[in-house]
Amino acid sequence: MSQISLIQAVNQALFEEMARNPDVVLLGEDIGVDGGVFRATDGLIQKFGEDRIIDTPLSESGIVGTAIGMAAYGLRPVAEIQFMGFLYGAMEQLVSHAARLRSRTRGRYTCPLVVRTPYGGGIHAPELHSESTEAFFVHTAGLKVVVPSTPAEAKGLLVSAIRDPDPVIFLEPSRIYRAIKEKVPEGECEIPLGEARLVAEGDDLTLITWGAMLHPTLDAASRISEKGIHADIIDLRTLSPLDSSTIIQSVEKTGRAVIVHEAARTCGLGGEIAAQICEKALLSLEAPVVRVTGYDIPVPLPKTEAWYYPDAEQILDAIETVVHF
């Protein structure tokens, strides 16, 4: 078991699944000799060849549409889209076809497709390279949406996504691709989809987050613990299907909740989570549910992007608000 980064864990998961199952194929822009824009597929073409590592034209709709056809006829395609903002060009394929194949055929066909894409900001990228619009895909029935927060989580969740019979949007937080390392088991490593992870336990409040936002949330929780305030910290892992039971059980215990995400506030997933808490755990609440989010504007360009993203200070303020309500 070696210490590796999140991008290395993705590479390891792809390698092991391709070695295990000859039906797994990769396709995307510059994923072959160049190894992908973030080098997630580095070295794989040398091991598996051009028949299974397919460099495509610059056409996101074409990439996803081709992958849907592959999936319908028995392959297990993993399509890479270079940045989440580029997925918008493939919305027709994802929403009208991939998400509906099972229901359209009354279960005769499924669509075992994974669409991998970096998402979120913090890497000083230009327009459309820092999107966090996961709610688009969560809102689409038939798509599963998965977001890892650490290298080990990335490997285990990606393996499960590749083996899943339905289409999975696999969002990789680009800001932590190389920012953290941890021990990741080699060989068989599968984390079930649809199950949140309780990262830390406490009785005073519940912190709910996913992806890169787990890390400032952990920072804030560590700092507030010095004041004797201890939190349950839930890493959702899978945004659709949402593990509502873990959230509700925690809030029923703690009576307070703070939700943290970098996506825009209005119609962000935090609003749905807050609604479910109010519907299912209202009588347990001792304070209003508070959201710490990005803003309802396009993600700023690099010079001012740091002002856009939630940080530990904002999360601390939210914790103080609910604890002292």
Feature tags:
Rossmann fold, 325 residues, seven-stranded mixed beta sheet, single chain, five-stranded mixed beta sheet, 14 strands, 11 helices, alpha/beta
Describe this structure in words.
The protein has 11 helices and 14 strands. It has 2 domains: 2-184, Thiamin diphosphate (ThDP)-binding fold, Pyr/PP domains (Rossmann fold, 3-Layer(aba) Sandwich); 197-323, Rossmann fold. The mean pLDDT is 96. The termini are far apart. By secondary structure, the protein is of the alpha/beta class. It has helices at residues 6-20, 44-48, 60-72, 91-96, 101-104, 134-138, 151-163, 214-225, 244-254, 269-281, 312-323; strands at 2-5, 24-28, 53-55, 76-80, 114-119, 144-146, 168-173, 181-184, 197-200, 205-209, 231-235, 238-240, 257-264, 290-294. It is globular and about 60 Å long. The strands form 3 sheets. It has a 7-stranded mixed beta sheet, with helices on both faces. The chain has a 5-stranded mixed beta sheet with strand order 9-11-10-13-14, with helices on both faces. Strands 1-8 form a two-stranded antiparallel ribbon.
- Strand order across the biggest sheet? 3-2-4-5-7-6-12
The N- to C-terminal Cα distance equals 45 Å
User: Unreliable runs, pLDDT <50, ≥5 residues?
Assistant: none
Number of strands: 14
- Using the 3D structure, state the CATH architecture of the largest domain: 3-Layer(aba) Sandwich
According to CATH, the homologous superfamily of the largest domain is: Thiamin diphosphate (ThDP)-binding fold, Pyr/PP domains
